[in-house]
Write a structure and sequence with these properties.
FAD/NAD(P)-binding domain, about 15% strand, 3 domains, single chain, five-stranded parallel beta sheet, 17 helices
C-alpha cells in the first residue's frame, strides 16, 4: 500500500500509510477465495462479514461494502488502520496458508474512507424508541461499540466521557500519524446522528457516583479502560525528563504538544530518548519522540525482536524511520544529574526456557551492565486499572488487580443492571477486542431491557 517516504514522515505527523485507490482495492479484493466456511469471520472479535464486503469491493459496489461492514462494526476506518489483522481475521485467511493473506484491514479502511469522501456512510436504520435509557461510562472503543448497538435497537444512550474529546484511547493514545483524529471525530459524529448523546468533562466517581447515575438510567455499561501508568520501580524514575508513555502520548495527541506554542502544552524531548517496552504503545512513543525533534531514539526491550508484542507493521515502520532497537536488555536504573535524566543503565539478558507466555524467559547476564545516553526516558511497560471510578462503584466486585469482575459473554457485573467490558475488565488489549466486549454487553443489555415493562 502506498505510504510516505520514511525520511519525510519521520519529521511530520501526517498519516504514514496513504491507503488504496479504487483500482488497487478491487485488485486486492480479487484475491479473495470466498471460502464457504468463512474462517476470516471467526477470527474477527466483532464478526464482520468479511467475504461479503470484499466481494462487494471486487464488484465495484463500494457503497454496499460499507453497509455490510457497518452491520457489525461502527469504526471501520479506525479498525482498518489500527487492528492487528495479522493475528485475527487475516491469520485465518485460507490464502495465507501458502501466500500473503488477503489484506482485509486495508480493504476495510478503503471502504470506510471511500464512503466518507462520497457521503455514503452506510449507517443502519434506528428502530423506534423503546423508552429505555442506558448510561455508558467512557467513550473508548468498548463504550462506542456498546452505544452503537443499543442506539440501533431504539434505546436512548448517553455516554459520559472524563476528557474534553471523545474517543478514549483512540484519541489520546494512538498518534495521528497512525490514526488521524479527524477520522475518530468522523466516526463519533456518525454515532451522534443515530441519537447518542455524549457528555464531556464528566468524571464519574467525582462528579457523581454510580448509584446516583443509576437513579436516572435503566442500565449502565462501564468502559473506563485501563489508563493507570505502570513504572518499573527502578532508581531514577522520579527524575525530570522521565515520562510514562500515557502522559507523553496524551500531551502530544490530546493536548497537541506537537503544535506548541500554538497549543500551549509544552513537552520536553531531549536529544537522546530511551523508550522502555516492546508493545504498540512503546513504538508509538518512540516514533512520536522522533517527530518532536529527538536526535536519536532507542527502544529497549528485554526479549528478542521475534518476541516483540507490537504489530509487525509498526516495527517495520519504526526501523525504516531510524528507531534503534536494543534487544535482550533490561533497564536497572536511570542516571541523573542536577535532577534531570542523563543516562540509562541496562543489563544484557539471555533467553532461557519458555515462561507461561510461551516465550523465552529473560534472565540477566551477570556483569553485562552497559550505559545508554538518554536525557528523556519514556516508560511504556503497560497500564493498570485506574481506581478513580471503581472506588465509587458500590456492589461491583473487583479482582485482586483492581479490574471489574464481569461475565465474559454478557458483561454482567455483580450489581444488577450494571455491565462492564474492555480494558477495565481484561486489562490492556486491542481496540477490536474491546469493541467485541461492548457488542456482547449491548446484546445482553437489550435482552434484559426487552423483558422489562
Amino acid at each position: 500500500m502506498p505510504e510516505q517516504d520514511a525520511r519525510e514522515r519521520s519529521r511530520n505527523f501526517e498519516e504514514v500509510v496513504l491507503g488504496y485507490d479504487a483500482r488497487l482495492a478491487r485488485k486486492e479484493a480479487e484475491r479473495c477465495l470466498s471460502c464457504k466456511d468463512e474462517p476470516c469471520v471467526r477470527g474477527c472479535p466483532v464478526s464482520v462479514p468479511v467475504p461479503r464486503f470484499v466481494q462487494a469491493i471486487r464488484e465495484g459496489e463500494f457503497g454496499e461494502a460499507i453497509r455490510i461492514i457497518r452491520t457489525s462494526n461502527l469504526l471501520p476506518a479506525v479498525c482498518g488502520r489500527v487492528c492487528p489483522q495479522e493475528s485475527q481475521c487475516e491469520r485465518n485467511c485460507t490464502l495465507g496458508k501458502k501466500f500473503e493473506p488477503v489484506a482485509i484491514g486495508r480493504l476495510e479502511r478503503f471502504a470506510a474512507d471511500h464512503a466518507a469522501k462520497n457521503r455514503g456512510e452506510g449507517l443502519p436504520a434506528v428502530e423506534p424508541s423503546t423508552g429505555k435509557k442506558v448510561a455508558v461510562v467512557g467513550s473508548g472503543p468498548a463504550g462506542l461499540a456498546c452505544a452503537y448497538d443499543l442506539a440501533r435497537k431504539g434505546h436512548k444512550v448517553v455516554i459520559f466521557e472524563a476528557l474534553h474529546e471523545p474517543g478514549g484511547v483512540l484519541f489520546y493514545g494512538i498518534p495521528r500519524f497512525r490514526l488521524p483524529k479527524k477520522i475518530v471525530k468522523r466516526e463519533v459524529e456518525s454515532l451522534k446522528r443515530m441519537g447518542v448523546q455524549i457528555v464531556m468533562n464528566a468524571v464519574i466517581g467525582k462528579l457523581f457516583t454510580l448509584s446516583e447515575l443509576m437513579t436516572d438510567f435503566d442500565a449502565c455499561f462501564i468502559a473506563t479502560g485501563a489508563g493507570l501508568p505502570r513504572f518499573m520501580g527502578i532508581e531514577g524514575e522520579n527524575l525530570n525528563g522521565v515520562y510514562s508513555a500515557n502522559e507523553f502520548l496524551t500531551r502530544t495527541n490530546l493536548m497537541r504538544a506537537y503544535d506548541f506554542p500554538r497549543y500551549d502544552t509544552p513537552v520536553k524531548v531531549g536529544n537522546k530518548v530511551a523508550v522502555l517496552g516492546g508493545g504498540n504503545v512503546a513504538f508509538d512513543a518512540a516514533r512520536t519522540a522522533l517527530r518532536l525533534g529527538a536526535g536519536e531514539v532507542f527502544l529497549v526491550y528485554r526479549r528478542s525482536e521475534a518476541d516483540l508484542p507490537a504489530r509487525k507493521e509498526e516495527v517495520h515502520h519504526a526501523k525504516e524511520e531510524g528507531i534503534r532497537l536494543i534487544l535482550c536488555a533490561n533497564p536497572v536504573r536511570i542516571i541523573g544529574e542536577n535532577g534531570w535524566a542523563k543516562g540509562l543503565e541496562c543489563v544484557r539478558m539471555e533467553l532461557c526456557e519458555p515462561d507461561e507466555s510461551g516465550r523465552g524467559r529473560p534472565v540477566p547476564i551477570k556483569g553485562s551492565e552497559f550505559l545508554i545516553p538518554a536525557d528523556t526516558v519514556i516508560v511504556a511497560i503497560g497500564t493498570g486499572a485506574n481506581p478513580l471510578f471503581t472506588r465509587s462503584t458500590e456492589e461491583v466486585r473487583l479482582d485482586e488487580r483492581g479490574y471489574i469482575i464481569a461475565d465474559k459473554e454478557t458483561g454482567r457485573t455483580t450489581r444488577e443492571g450494571v455491565y462492564a467490558g474492555g480494558d477495565i475488565v481484561t486489562g490492556s488489549a486491542t481496540v477490536i477486542s474491546a469493541m467485541g466486549a461492548g457488542r456482547k454487553a449491548a446484546g445482553a443489555i437489550h435482552e434484559c431491557l426487552s423483558k422489562q415493562k
